[in-house]
Amino acid sequence: MKLDKLDSDLLRYISSNGHQPGDRLPALDDLSSQLGISVGKLREQLEGARILGLVEVRPRTGIKLEAYSFTPAVRASLLFALACNPHQFEKFSDLRNHIEFNYFYEATAKLTQEDLIDLKNIVDSAKAKLQGKLILIPDIEHRELHLTLFKRLDNPFVIGLLESYWDAYDAVGLNVYADISYLTDVWRYHERIVEALLANDRDEAYCMLVQHTKLLQQRG
Questions:
Q1: What does the domain layout of the chain look like in residue ranges?
Q2: 1, exposed or middle or buried, with CB in 10 Å at 0-12, 13-18, 19+?
Q3: Fewest beta carbons less than 10 Å away: which of 70, 119, 121, 168?
């Protein structure tokens, strides 16, 4: 790649010097001298890198390079879009559905037996919340179940889009309240997806996934 396409001296420096996640970068004064830019400009670029999730900045430990994740960049842009127009969630939700549909077979083929057990435990936890004396919304389980289905994909861009969907889901308040009958239907589909995967019937699991995504549209 042509590094001049990166509109940041700091990002060009990181990418061209072979730095790895966990590496500590030089202090700002040293970087300023190496890059030939002012400390003020460097601070601006550092803040941009921090927002993108590329570096961690702490007062005493300095600047540490993070493992690459697409999620922070997508999340920041998506949450801004929703702040301007909450109805944009419907469009992103549609994109997320297509991603899940198209990657479902590839993703679930890579799940381990431990992953399947985790999925079953997530379903059990959600059902316990819904069937208790004090009904609780299993919002954490909802996120965990869907992300676990796709966790083995070796594609940070797909994972970033899927993770950002759940931040948007929370931002528009869909994790706050839902009718008990709706929640029961949602988790009945989730349970059938997991049961089908445990039985190695991915066609049935996919069918259940497609049917269950229609519930959110009906809820809206």
A1: 3-65, 71-219
A2: exposed
A3: 121
Joined together, the tokens standing for residue 117 give 């057990």
Distance CA 126, CA 208 (A): 18
* CATH code reported for the domain at 71-219: 1.20.120.530
Both tokens of 4, joined, read 């001049």
- pTM exceeds 0.90 for this model: no
Mean of pLDDT values over 34-50: 93
First to last CA, the chain: 44
Q: What is the CATH number of domain 3-65?
A: 1.10.10.10
Q: Is 18 left (phi over 0), alpha (psi -120 to 50) or beta?
A: left
Instruction: From 194, 185, 186, select the one nearest 119 (Cα to Cα).
Output: 194
Helix intervals (H) in 56-201? 71-84, 88-109, 113-131, 139-149, 156-171, 180-198
pLDDT interval class at 220 (50, 70, 90): very low
- Give the DSSP H/E element, type plus range, for residue 56: strand 55-58
CA–CA gap between residue 220 and residue 213 (Å, rounded): 12
Do domains 3-65 and 71-219 share one topology? The answer is: no
pLDDT in tens, 111-165: 999 999 999 999 999 999 998 878 888 989 999 999 999 999 999 999 999 999 9
Give me the numbers of helices (H) and strands (E) for the chain, helices first please: 10, 3
pLDDT in the model for residue 17: 85
